[in-house]
Amino acid sequence: MGKFIKFILAIFTFFTVTFCAEAAPVVKITGLEFDNSDNIVIINSIGKIFPKTQQTPEDNDKSLRTPENIITKCFLDNPDRVFVDITNAVLAGNQRTYTLKNSSLNNVKISQFSTNPHTVRIVFEYNKKFDPKNFAVYANDRQIAIRYSSTLVGSEKYKTIYNNMTQGERKADILESVTYSSETKEKILNVSNTQEAQFQTVKEDEKNTKLKALYYLDSVSSLSNGLMIKGSGMLSIKNSFVLENPLRVVYDIENAVVAQDLRNKSFSLPTNNALVVNGIVMPRDILRVGQNTPSTARLVVQGSDAKNYRLVLSPDLQGLFIAKRTDVLNAKLTETTSTVLSYEAKNAGENLDVVNINFSNPVALTTFEENSKFYVDLQNVVDFNQKAIDELHKNPDYNGITAQKIASEKTRIIFPLKDSTAINAQISPDAKELRIYFKKRVKTVSPVVVTKPQEPKEQEQEKEKQRPSTIKQMYTVVIDPGHGGADVGATRVNIYEKDITLEVSKLLENYLKKQGVYTHMTRDRDKTVELNERSDFSNSINPDVFISVHVNSSVKEDIIGVETHWYHPQSLDFAKKVHAKIASSRNLSKWETKDRGLFQSKFYVINHTNAPAILVEIGFISNPNERRELVKEKRQEEVAKAIADGIMEYLKDRK
Question: Beta-carbon neighbour count of residue 398 at 10 Å?
């Protein structure tokens, strides 16, 4: 009997193993995403992909190996089309047809082409704009992407290359929407693997959608003096800002998608002062590449020299060269030289000027702001056209603009900046025209109301009528809890800055509300909020003051104390009032901390916010004692109360 049971178990095991080998995991394809540059189709999928060109997991028993996803393509005519087949793949949901407008593709169909083997087929019907030579399929273990074009089609939009304007201040919207209609089948139709699927579709309502990207970043390569980033489409730089502890300079590329295999990767930046530890060369400066939001690619230069790096845009608007400023001066990025044909400066609206510069050939360039000046370094311009500069200087409003040679083939154009000037620089798609918008930010001043003199008794009655017990319903404050969501801020022993700042900000909001002040929070829960979104949010509300709450950090554990930061002169008095309350001798003694003082700092949120704006650092998370206190409700309430008292004093004095 025992032998019989063993025999039955052996048979069962054999069939189980055989069945499992046949039912090995397959990739589930959930749909398609089209990028906005008419370049790329992203195939969304669940599960690990094993392209035929990639080594599958090592296993001595081939019957247990995961099936490869063989990807093939084939061109057909009548109508002109190309299909891509992916084996060992299943389509989730119904088969679908995407009809594109203003594209080199007429429509794209995806279906479960066969079930033995499981094959998903994607059919692309194209028109005369389509070039079959550009059609290529890329695959790794996480994603399959299809590129069907090499350049933007019919784009007349200028691309932003430098911007510190708020969304409301920006002159032009670079987004171009692609219109498509989505069609879905009523049910999955199993078809033979010897003929193309027949589509019976039910058409949904047509819709306009701003699709995923104008740029697809797919390459980072190391050069002797820097890194070269390349991709498809056209680059558009959203903004840049500086973060401390550790020092980082962040550059965002808008409407851009990073290839899956490059996301969250770090690359060493070539440097002459690399750190050698036990004979191993350790990079002092690195570049991190990531997908910050579904439509924003993020580049982060980190290291002690992070501020000394420059980003040079290539003439085809598809590449970025990152290197130290000295290496940028010595680098030759293109063989084509250019000259300045003309300069034109004019008023483009209220407090808005625009300078247009035209070139004979496409230019490679970098831009930066420093010492109250805006610089444009042109990497391949041999002649800046002094005669045209002289003509420009005839207008006294623009006689401060200068140009000079900084190397044999390199030119620098310098624009002096007045206080509170916002900049939006744009390049044409052919890189032969540069437009720079300068927006003067004007402080609003309440009009002076002249009233006739009143009798003493009338004055007393009027004062009594207007005298509030608080400043109820007269002022608005925007509170910005630092960091949040994926951006945790400074961290020690699983304690996050983002959590402390949110708790203190909520308590601050309650204190202000009790005194009748209108309050708005840039975030009221744990979520990611971009720096520009915080300042844009505040500017849309136009509050009386803006305050950002942060917790400090240092590599030295013994450092403690509170700080208050301001940037624009209009914010200095506000900073003094709040800091006096936070850093009062009573609080310093009670909290056993130090007054680290007031600082003029160019933090993004207090630089780009129109209202008087400050940033408070309420203690050091890196100090064990201060960290222990900062997480306590009592300390948080006392800090919030001190900030609220400072805000109220400032608002009452303004009244």
Answer: 18
Of 61-70, 113-122, 305-314, the one with minimum mean pLDDT is 61-70
Amino acid at 524: D
Distance (Å, whole) CA 483 – CA 498 = 5
Total residues found in the chain within this entry = 655
Is 260 within 8 Å of 140 (Cβ atoms)?
Answer: yes
- The percent of the chain in helix, strand and coil, each rounded to the nearest 5, is 20, 40, 40
**pLDDT score, position 229:** 94
| pLDDT, tens digit (0-9, with 9 covering 90-100), for 53-92 | 444 444 444 444 456 788 888 888 888 899 999 999 999 8
Residue 458 confidence (pLDDT): 52
Rounded to an integer, what distance in angstroms lies between the CA atom of residue 412 and that of residue 379? 9
**Domain 338-440 top-level CATH class:** mainly beta
- Looking at the predicted structure, is the pLDDT value of residue 330 above 90? no
Q: Please provide the DSSP assignment of 545-585 as one string.
A: EEEEEEEE--SSTT---EEEEE-SGGGHHHHHHHHHHHT-H
Q: Which residues pair with 597 in a beta bridge?
A: 563
* Residue 152, pLDDT above cutoff 90: no
Q: What is the CATH number of domain 215-330?
A: 2.60.40
Supply the DSSP string of 32-72, one letter for each residue. Answer: EEE-TTS-EEEEEEES---BTTSPPPP-S-GGGSPPPB-EE
Q: Where are the domains of the chain?
A: 23-159+180-207, 215-330, 338-440, 476-654
Burial of 91 from C-beta contacts in 10 A (0-12 / 13-18 / 19+): buried
CATH of 476-654, one of 3.40.50.2000, 3.50.50.60, 3.40.630.40, 3.10.450.50: 3.40.630.40
| Range among 160-174, 204-218, 327-341, 492-506 rated most confident | 492-506
Alpha-carbon gap, residue 162 to 160, rounded angstroms: 6
Cα 337 to Cα 332, 383, 428, 620, 641, distances in angstroms? 10, 9, 17, 52, 62
pLDDT at 311 (0 to 100): 93
Q: Are 301 and 220 in contact (CB under 8 A)?
A: no
Let me know if the fold of 215-330 is the same as that of 338-440.
yes
DSSP string, 385-434: -HHHHHHHTTSGGGTT-EEEEEETTEEEEEEE--TTEEEEEEE-TTS-EE
Please calculate the CA angle 634-637-640 and round it to the nearest 5 degrees: 150
Residue 341 has what pLDDT? 95
Q: How high is the pLDDT of residue 272? A: 53
Amino acid 445: pLDDT:
47
Residue for token digits 């059609």? 135
